[in-house]
Amino acid sequence: MDSTLAVQQFIQQTIRKDPSNVDEILTPPEGQDEGVWKYEHLRQFCLELNGLAVKLQNECNPETCTQMTATEQWIFLCAAHKTPKECPAIDYTRHTLDGAACLLNSNKYFPSRVSIKESSVAKLGSVCRRVYRIFSHAYFHHRAIFDEFENDTFLCRRFTVFVTKYNLMPKDNLIVPILGDETSMNESEA
Amino acid sequence: MDDGPVTQNTSGQIGSLGTGVGIVAKTNQDEYNQRPHYSIPGILHFIQHEWGRFETERTQWEVERAELQARIAFLQGERKGQENLKNDLIRRIKMLEYALKQERAKFHKLKYGTELNVADFKGTVYDDLTKDEFVDGDLSNSNVSWKQGRQLLRQYLQEIGYTDTVIDVRSSRVRNLLGLAPHLTESDEKKNTSLVNGEQSLNRVTDTQRRGAGKKPTNSAAENALRETEASVLATFDFLASENIDIEDDEEENLRFAFDSDENGEERNMEDNKRIISQQKIIAKNNKTERMDDLMMEDAETEEVLSEFSFLGPESANGSREARSLGDIGEWEKSESDCEEEWGTSPQAISKMMEEFRRERNRKDTFQRPKRSALQAMLATLSNSSNEENRPSSVVPDNSPFTSSPSSMSQSQSGTGFSCDTPSGDSRFGEGLGLLANFDSLLGFGIPPEVNTNGVHGGNLTFGSGSRCPLLGSKCDDENMDTSLGLGELAGITVSNEAESCYDISASKEAFRKTWNAKYTLRSHFDGVRALAFHPEEPVLITASEDHTLKLWNLQKTVPAKKTASLDVEPIYTFRGHCGAVLCVTMSATGEQCFSGGLDSTIKCWNLPNSNIDPYDSYDPGVITSTLKGHSDAVWGLSVHSSKLHLLSCSADGTVRLWSPQVKASLLHTYYAEKDDGQPASVDFVRCDPAQMVAAYDSSNALIFDLETGKNVLRLDTINSSSVNPLSKQINRIVCHPTLPLVIAAYEDKNIRFFDITTGKMVHSMVAHLDAVTCLAIDPNGLYLLSGSHDCSIRLWNMDNKTCVQEITSHRKKFDESIYDVAFHPSKPYIASAGADALAKVFV
Predict the structure, then answer these.
(1) What are phi and psi for residue B669, nearest 5 degrees?
(2) Under an 8 A CB cutoff, do B524 and A105 touch?
(3) What number of H helices and E strands is found in chain A?
(4) Given CB atoms, is B524 within the 8 Å cutoff of chain A?
(5) What residues pair up with B540 in beta bridges, in sequence order?
(6) Distance of alpha carbon B440 from the chain centroid
(7) How far apart are alpha carbons B798 and A123 in whole angstroms?
(8) For the segment B376-391, what is each residue's pLDDT rounded down to a tens digit?
(9) A129 Cβ contact list (under 8 Å, min separation 6)
(10) Is there a contact between B836 and A46 if contact means CB atoms under 8 Å apart?
(11) Non-local CB neighbours of B536 within 8 Å, separated by 6+ positions
């Protein structure tokens, strides 16, 4: 842990070792600053979500998914614009990831990767909420893609555990039923 | 531009000459049986005409010279003005610096209770600019207490209304300049006889000398011709015909004039007249030396003849008028071509001088230009002072030539001799002389063609002495100026300035050595940036990252960052298409497309979105045009051909492939190396031979392939010792010099090695970094090499002597890797580096 990028290195190493071992991945080393830990994990989620976005690009087009929806309950408005607007799902996905990339790399909110201001840590929650919608949209509208992606990366599972563990999102917002039956849940849903 | 009129003119006169010759031949056939093509009146007319023509030309030259001199004076005045302004600003800066230093010292004293190291104060470094102007020996000043500093500052603040002073000083400077002008030109004349004379030393002798010198080649040629043509009169007439002359009209009057002049013994010396080709010319030549003396001694007499001649002008009826209009006015028009011709300089020399002049001008232009109004004010001063100063260059048209002072006599003489009698000529003359009025337009045009020829001149005149110091100015002048600026004891203040070199304009005298500074930080990737590529023209670049994306950045769209020196840029587009890390990217020569290779074994072709695209625009599936599939393992290197849209890729599957991304069957060729060569790590087209490419392998071998046949044509003499771990010898990057048959390879063993690809021999090897060298880039001119290494630094190398010009620590380490790629912008002064810390940085 001697470099500014050590946390990222640590996370990536544990992921590479076994992406399915969510708990180990999410276990911080001793003495790790929690803000940085959360921040680096969120970076890693956004990074890997690019893979899901690439897959969605091929199937999720503005004609079929004119709005960002998961269940019929909510239409999500894209926050990347000055006035939030109803972007098609693929645009919402891209804009959310681009916006998250800009925010998480912002010199203003995250000038350092070794210490994170408390006020900036608060930003992480909203990023989590937004990127979670990508999972939920994929799950409810492009199930095949979601499953394929999830089987490779266990990303949604890890994400769900992550936000639950660090209380970054309210439980009832986690609409993808991925932890319902623990590990078997995923199989039975598929 | 005046070639047209000239040739027209000539042919017209040749025509009339032909008929004239015919007539002469007929009437005098009996009398001059032996020389049927030749007649005295004809010759006399010719001589007279030629003489007249030369007078006209001379007038023009003089006008031109006056013009140039005035221009030079003006430019020098302008320069002085700039210098004054500059000095003034420097003075202000220095005073502020001084005050700052004092304040710092005070602060230091108050805070720590000790004196700040006095050495800081004593380190008064005189910068180049002020060295000349400020008086030395002011160390005492450096010790003045802060009180005095304050005092000085106050003094300075009182001067804030300095602009009036500056303008006054400027005009006085211009006057000084004009006053000094004769001095200078005299000395210049000594240096170079072909230089134009000083304004006041205008006299015939030097004038003829000048012309003689200028025309030497043609003159001697004419003399040779003369001797030869003694025998062949026909040839003589051919020769005559080739010159623009008219002997058709007014034979009687011309004859009379010629005799007159003969009687007066004032026949004009025709030494420099290349068209005299008869016995009569020999006579003239015999008289030459006398005439020279005569001309010197008896200016008045010459003047008389001249005036006679000019009075003759109107008398000589229509024909002569026609001739004149052809001759004189034509002359005016073709003055510039004549000028070039007569100066007898080779075109190369002229162009060289022109270039020099332009460069000088450009340099001047890099100084901040004064406001137009200031220029006009100076102009006004200039014209005023030139009037006051005995009209040094006779700039103002003078219609009473016979009463003018000796110094300007010859000029006004010649001026009136030919120009005043024909209205059009006069007006042109006036126009030519009204140059002061034209200055504005001259300046406005930059250098119009007309001035260009003058520029040749000006270059010779002003910069021929080869010194950059002010031509007219001298040290005492500067001192005067300083006192007139009211510098007083301030002149002594030279507070050292650490950042002096930043604005030291005179430093540009030396070969410009740029220091690159980080300006833009490109942060938006989540993981290491593996590669980057610049747009060929725009300040736009694209980065490829391990976070599966590529991002497009427009350096003109920056995010205002607080208090940091570098600006943040946000990406304007994110390319998503690779499933896995993107390892390499390259841009087509047109900047319309880019190609990326990734860990997913594919190469993606992208259409570059507009550089002003809204980052949050809706998704356009057309951005990704095609995916080149063929490799079975990660694509590690790409290279695009500079002219045709061909793409080379190298992959961990051991192959190098050539693609034509736009056609359907895009894979053109696959190149295999031998098994023990290993995997290709980097590939590049051979820039000086478009039929070849070079591939470097992780076995440290580098091979040159023929693109067509796929055969390995050359194996570079790379280090191939098997003693140590072969991986430490691997080549990470190989690049070809844009023009030379040279490839440069970056090695894992910290070396950079240069190879001649005609022989395959290594020409240079150097330990370039403290860690593995990972990437290389050559600037578009092939003069500098940029290398990046896992030692976190990028280094700039002079290609000539292979020395490191600059080192910049740029990125942080991740997994012991730091810098993945470096790049030069193909047309703009940008360099960039991409690092494992998810950042890309752009330096200017």
Answers:
(1) -160, 150
(2) yes
(3) 8, 2
(4) yes
(5) B554
(6) 22
(7) 47
(8) 555 555 555 444 444 4
(9) A168, A169, A173
(10) no
(11) B587, B589, B590, B591, B826, B827
Is the C-alpha dihedral spanning B382, B388, B394, B399 positive or negative?
positive
Q: B interface mutation test: which of A65, A66, A81, A107 has the most B CBs within 10 A?
A: A107
Indicate the helix (H) or strand (E) that contains B798.
strand B793-798
Q: Which amino acid is at B131?
A: K
Out of B564, B576, B815, the one facing A57 most closely (by C-beta) is B576
Q: Report phi then psi at B20, rounded to 5.
A: -55, -45
Token look-up 């005092």 returns B151
- C-alpha span between B432 and B428 (Å, rounded): 6
Contacts 24+ apart (CB under 8 A), B226-235: B226/B276, B226/B277, B226/B281, B226/B282, B229/B277, B233/B35, B233/B36, B233/B37, B233/B38, B234/B37
Both tokens of residue B815?
A: 């997994």
Q: Where are the alpha helices (DSSP H) in B420-469?
A: 423-433, 435-445, 449-463
Cα separation of B246 and B239, whole Å?
13
Which of B523, B525, B526 to mutate to test binding with chain A, by most A CBs within 10 Å of its CB? Answer: B526
Taking chain B (844 residues) in runs of 10, the rounded mean pLDDT of each run is: 41 42 46 64 90 93 93 93 92 91 87 58 40 40 61 66 52 61 43 40 43 45 50 45 44 42 42 44 47 47 49 43 42 42 48 58 46 52 48 41 40 38 40 40 39 37 36 40 46 44 38 72 88 89 90 81 67 87 89 89 88 78 84 90 86 88 83 82 86 85 86 77 63 88 87 86 86 89 88 88 86 84 88 89 87
Residues 575-634 of B with CB under 8 A from A: 576-580, 615-616, 618-619, 621
What pTM value is reported for the model? 0.52
d(CA B246, CA B254): 12
The token pair that represents B726 in the structure block:
């072969």
Tokens encoding B576: 């998503």
Q: How far is CA B352 from CA B202, B346, B348, in A?
A: 28, 10, 6
Sheet containing B582-587, strands listed edge to edge, beginning at the edge strand earlier in sequence: B582-587, B593-598, B603-607, B624-628
